[in-house]
């Protein structure tokens, strides 16, 4: 199957990688360079963590995400996850940090709770009178987005995908399997996957 992926952030590049591994002919089209510094995945890093609200279900999905990242690191020959863990700080009852802690407890995920004095001793930038408690989990860290995007684009090119940078899509006809670029050029495929941001 011939597939065009519109948007080459981490989501689009990961989709293209997965499709190419499954044997599909893939083209990926990005309106700017790869990595695109205007995209969220153009940041130097993004956090990955299990800390979400108890009802969100995202904490469980992180297991699958780690498995997928491990497969990707094997293909890229490089690991771009910095597994340094994460800290949350609760300042008032019912705040986001407390919701995250409840989600960690509900999922039985590892974390260590710190009273303010102990937290400030471990992390000297904290002021004991300014928060209720902190918790730390070793199960998280930072994904280095720019490196991931650069290496995925390279992997896609090596594995016979077409990678189009600086090619803004101005029209998508999913039913016809056609996109139109700002230049007026059209591209045709069996399927179109839109993985572009709002802008």
- Strand sequence of the main sheet, in spatial order? 9-2-1-13
The SSE order reads EHEEHEEHEHEEHEEEEE
Tell me the domain tally: 2
- CATH H-level homologous superfamily name of the largest domain: FAD/NAD(P)-binding domain
**What would the average pLDDT be, to the nearest integer?**
94
Global morphology:
elongated
Sequence stretches where pLDDT stays below 50 over 5 or more residues: none
What does this structure look like?
The protein is built from 5 helices and 13 strands. It is an alpha/beta fold and 199 residues long. The strands form 4 sheets. A 4-stranded parallel β-sheet has the order 9-2-1-13, covered by helices on one side. The protein has a 3-stranded antiparallel β-sheet with strand order 3-8-4, covered by helices on one side. The mean pLDDT is 94.
What's the short version?
With about 200 residues, the protein is an alpha/beta fold.
Describe the secondary structure blueprint for this structure.
Elements: E1 2-6, H1 10-21, E2 25-29, E3 46-49, H2 58-76, E4 81-82, E5 86-90, H3 96-106, E6 112-114, H4 116-122, E7 133-137, E8 140-143, H5 145-158, E9 162-164, E10 169-173, E11 178-181, E12 186-188, E13 191-194
Parallel strand pairs: 1-2, 1-13, 2-9
Antiparallel strand pairs: 3-8, 4-8, 5-7, 6-7, 10-11, 11-12
Helix pairs in contact: 1-5
């Amino acid at each position: 199957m011939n597939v065009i992926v519109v948007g080459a952030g981490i989501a689009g590049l990961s989709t293209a990688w997965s499709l190419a591994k499954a044997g599909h002919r893939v083209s990926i089209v990005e309106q700017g360079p790869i990595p695109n510094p205007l995209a969220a995945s153009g940041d130097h890093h993004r956090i990955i963590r299990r800390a979400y609200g108890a009802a969100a279900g995202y904490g469980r999905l992180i297991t699958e995400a780690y498995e997928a990242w491990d497969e990707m690191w094997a293909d890229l020959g490089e690991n771009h996850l910095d597994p340094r863990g994460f800290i949350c700080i609760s300042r008032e009852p019912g705040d986001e940090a407390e919701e995250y802690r409840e989600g960690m407890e509900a999922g039985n995920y590892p974390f260590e709770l710190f009273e303010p004095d102990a937290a400030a001793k471990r992390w000297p930038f904290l002021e004991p009178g300014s928060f209720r408690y902190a918790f730390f989990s070793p199960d998280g860290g930072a994904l280095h987005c720019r490196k991931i995007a650069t290496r995925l684009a390279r992997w896609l090119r090596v594995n016979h995908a077409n990678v189009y940078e600086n090619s803004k899509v101005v029209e998508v006809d999913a039913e016809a399997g056609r996109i139109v670029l700002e230049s007026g050029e059209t591209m045709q495929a069996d399927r179109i996957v839109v993985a572009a941001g709002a802008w």
